[in-house]
């Protein structure tokens, strides 16, 4: 798959994930955060069991479920969700929006150390602009540590988990559709005890109205199955740094939807923050001139290489 296709798939995944905040606000009217995150994955898993397992010969889903790498990624991903939902219950929405979205800033740093992934000057500028944008968007109601230091630390842990998930997915080449389905199934199993112990989940007494179920189904299918599959597939064709920086697009999406559907008002600092993120997205996915020249040279002098 080409780099452009990888960028497009990642951008679409980020766009879909950007809608989760608004949809979750609707679903929270019918259940608590711990139950919601489990029901989101459980709904997706039900669809996978019904639709994917009949295609086992093509997907090799059972093989993916047996891989240690998939279980490791699922564990990291599940911990990230647990920290996010517990942390945001302990602190303010502004702090949650800042601290739980730091993965795009952390990934290029970790990728440089762990994968020797080259970070261009443009990407360095994108990282700085991305952090500035996140800070400005959260700044109107930001008061770090005053509500709950533990909650803030949990949300920071969320970003670390998501950054680790991206790096490990790239390093272990977990980028297939079957891998994304296996991760969804395993995360469901890992989240079940949390929903029961912290959310008081009772499967036989779910008092959720049709609007609530519609929100859960949306979170389960487009926001989980489709978005995760697109993101991992896109990650196979672009660098972890590019992939992570494109996740900033979900912050812009969430901001726009909050204004349109939740009637939230943006002040000047948030508008400037949104513009900073837009510039960060443009810089973060820009190919530097040396990379272009290298590709042109390699295309001018093709070499027949036999792959083992």
What is the molecular shape? globular
The helix count comes to: 16
What class would the helix/strand composition place it in? Answer: mainly alpha
What's the number of domains? 1
Question: What series of H and E elements makes up the topology?
Answer: HHHHHHHHHHHHHHHH
Q: What's the pLDDT, averaged over the residues?
A: 84
Percent in strands? under 5%
* Helical residue percent band: over 70%
What summary fits the major beta sheet?
none
How many individual β-strands?
Answer: 0
Unreliable runs: 288-308
User: What Rg, in angstroms, do the CA atoms define?
Assistant: 20 Å
First-last Cα distance: 20 Å
Give an account of the 3D structure:
The protein has helices at residues 3-18, 20-27, 33-51, 56-59, 61-65, 68-90, 93-99, 103-114, 121-138, 149-171, 177-197, 210-235, 240-246, 248-261, 268-284, 289-300. It has one domain. It contains 16 helices and no strands. Helix 3 (33-51) runs antiparallel to helix 11 and helix 11 (177-197) crosses helix 12 (210-235). The chain is mainly α and 308 residues long.
